[in-house]
Amino acid sequence: MADAAGRLTKLAEEVLGARLPVRIRAWDRSEAGPPGAPVLVVRNRRALRRLLFKPGELGLARAWVAGDLDIEGDLYEALGLLAGMIWESPEPAAPPQRAAALRALFRPEVRAAAGEILSLVGLPLPPAPPAEEARPRRGPLHTLRSDRQAISHHYDVGNDFYELVLGPSMVYSCAYWESPQATLEEAQRDKLDLICRKLGLKEGQRLLDVGCGWGSMVLHAARTYGVRAVGITLSEEQAAYARKRVADAGLTDRIEIRVQDYREVRDDPFDAISSIGMAEHVGRARYAEYAGVLYALLRPGGRLLNHQIARRPLADEETYRVDEFIDRYVFPDGELSPVGRTAGALEDAGFEVRDVEALREHYALTLRQWVANLERHWDRAARLTSPGRARVWRLYMAASALSFERNRIGVNQVLAVRTPEAGESGMPLRARDWRA
């Protein structure tokens, strides 16, 4: 049918209750919408069927990952315009209402009025989800087995792929930017060194890095500060990569890499613990346990550096729901907490919280660098994993950059001490002078 773009624009504006801020190009080459705006490309009718059977974010995500939808023009601009209408609506009840309105257009009793739209969809059979989608979890969350499966989904997609995105530092967490003109590698090195200084690492001390990734933290700590380090991860691919890096650096006598859950560590005590971008995987139901386990693994006077993404607090915390796109395609079973709840859980476990540093703007800069790396190596990244997986990462990282920039989420370094009963924390009087 001619002018599919015009009809889609009209439908979208009726459902959203506002003017569509992006231009639409449909499979029949028709276009509609504001001139000069980013273009939302609807490649086929299957995109509409995905939205019909899963209205809202999951349907949009499936269409994007499968390549049924695309964006031409500035990706950040397009996501920013759409986020203001869909994901960041000031009306809490708006998304369910919109989903109901979209479904209502396809009920038998209104087909006469919606005949033109139905003709756009074609045979309304539900398309299969893209292969990159994780199946919904059955059974209890955050068991030893389910956490291993969730971590594997995210991290065991190929070390070569992550090398393209992360660059030589192989650090998959927020960098620390002394200046926006610094390189990604410099900013990641500065982040690792900042953590080492906050932990007060000294030669001969014993460090546990929880969720060690590809080994960058333990390597930096052993090389620069002379510690003996244990790095634990649930990813077999990360562990193999990290062990090779350790061997190549000649540090096998100082660093041990294990495939191990933090709940399985038994060889305490440690002088310091770093947990960098790992606590997001723990889950609300397990966070008290997480804090208690780390407290027990530290010697009295030992320090914990917990580096963690945080969401904004809600008036009713029971209404919190995990983002469907992230849960199915990025971090299955991942959950975010406000920084206040994180600090409270650490204190409940016995820690003394000594410092909290917000790095929200730093993560936005980091994510934009990762997106640029992915786009620069797009063809190879798609070959190393799949075109769908590359599209997942591009959308996830670009949308996350905007979320940090708009203060929808943040990231914080919480420094805590297992202060002895005598009360001597061992912290410097000028705690912020980490360079001293």
From TrEMBL:
SUPFAM superfamilies: S-adenosyl-L-methionine-dependent methyltransferases. InterPro entries: CFA/CMAS (IPR050723), CMAS (IPR003333), MeTfrase_dom (IPR020803), SAM-dependent_MTases_sf (IPR029063). Keywords: Lipid metabolism, Methyltransferase, S-adenosyl-L-methionine, Transferase. The keyword Cytoplasm does not apply. GO terms for molecular function: methyltransferase activity. Pfam families: CMAS. Residues 161-402 form the Polyketide synthase-like methyltransferase domain. Coiled coil: none annotated. GO terms for biological process: lipid biosynthetic process; methylation. The keyword Cytoplasm does not apply. PANTHER family: CYCLOPROPANE-FATTY-ACYL-PHOSPHOLIPID SYNTHASE. Belongs to the CFA/CMAS family. This is SAM-dependent methyltransferase. It comes from Streptomyces gilvosporeus.
